[in-house]
Design brief:
Length: 330
């Protein structure tokens, strides 16, 4: 349902409340933390439709419009000085730590530095707000099953007591990745290899007080003690906030994804980590886009354009109020 309502500045705006995803499309905490903090201070953001750039949504970011925030990052250290801005909201981190070398993740800080950031964040926010992602899992001459066993064990023990959840997923080999993956001998795992590795990881994670979940995987690993997780997780948000969240599946995600509805405010192809397996950097020139970022712009990249059509998507709140009937959302 789309209903148009003009704000005082003449631009349509969202009404209702929502979960903000920041972001599946790029690492906003690592590269754009000041911009993100300013958008929440100014209480709105403009987001381009990734499939039609002149369709622009105005997303309200006030406490009356946002139910919660999910941060996605491989290096959220730059966000720490701004973290107070987000205290009015329930939030948690999807934090990726997988131990690959600079051949695979060329522009990330050293792993010890990123682990230290994880521990610092957990100490400040609490382990309920920290989800460790060990993904994507790939195989290569450098990254064998034995390498994964050693790396996962080391990371698991160092993060023990700082998170209770590890999310895993396996490499999806998109077309734009194939040339570099072929050069490095990178391949996906066979089902038998997945099961062998997961069985080992479950035993280590359990000893460290963690539950392993999969992310949008079709393989059934329940018999090994792995549940199919949701990265935008209503149950986690309930635990953090003490409120009841609707568990309505996000229809815009992959069929194997269990995430509940959210609004992503990121932009594709502007993450500078340079990870060779990244689905979100399909090959457009980052060098041409990054100079277009302005911390004071309502857009993550660029400014309004004459052809833009600003629209409203009316989200429902994902929080159930004390007096609300669960059947009034259709």
């Amino acid at each position: 349902m789309h209903l148009l309502c003009l704000a005082s500045d003449g631009l349509p705006q969202y009404h209702g409340r929502m979960i903000i995803s920041a972001s599946r499309r790029c690492d906003i905490p690592a590269f754009y933390p000041r911009w993100l903090a300013k958008r929440f201070e100014r209480q709105f953001v403009l987001v381009r439709n990734p499939f039609n750039r002149h369709q622009v949504g105005r997303v309200g970011l006030s406490p009356s419009e946002v139910d919660a925030i999910v941060f996605w990052s491989k290096n959220p250290a730059p966000l720490l000085p701004c973290l107070g801005t987000f205290e009015p909201f329930p939030y948690y981190f999807q934090y990726t730590l997988n131990g690959y070398s600079s051949a695979y993740e060329p522009k990330l800080p050293p792993i010890d530095e990123r682990i230290a950031t994880f521990l610092k964040l957990s100490g400040r926010c609490g382990m309920d707000r920290m989800v460790w992602r060990y993904d994507p899992i790939l195989l290569s001459p450098d990254c064998t099953l034995e390498w994964h066993r050693k790396t996962f064990s080391s990371l698991c023990r160092r993060l023990s007591g700082y998170t209770d959840t590890c999310v895993i997923s396996f490499l999806d080999l998109y077309r734009h990745m194939q040339p570099v993956c072929e050069r490095l001998g990178i391949r996906t795992l066979e089902n038998a290899e997945m099961s062998e590795l997961v069985e080992f990881c479950v035993s280590i994670a359990t000893s460290c007080g963690m539950q392993i979940q999969t992310c949008a995987e079709t393989i059934d690993l329940v018999a090994l003690g792995v549940v199919k997780g949701a990265c935008i997780d209503g149950l986690r948000l309930e635990k953090i906030s003490g409120k009841t969240f609707l568990t309505r599946k996000d229809k815009y995600q992959r069929s194997g994804c269990n995430c509940i509805e959210s609004v992503d405010i990121g932009t594709y192809d502007i993450c500078s980590h340079g990870c060779i397996y990244c689905y979100a950097n399909p090959g457009r020139s980052r060098e041409g886009l990054l100079p277009m970022h302005d911390d004071d712009s309502p857009f993550l990249i660029g400014d309004p354009e004459a052809e833009d059509c600003v629209y409203e998507r009316k989200p429902h709140s994902m929080v159930v109020s004390d007096t609300q009937c669960l059947f009034d959302f259709e």
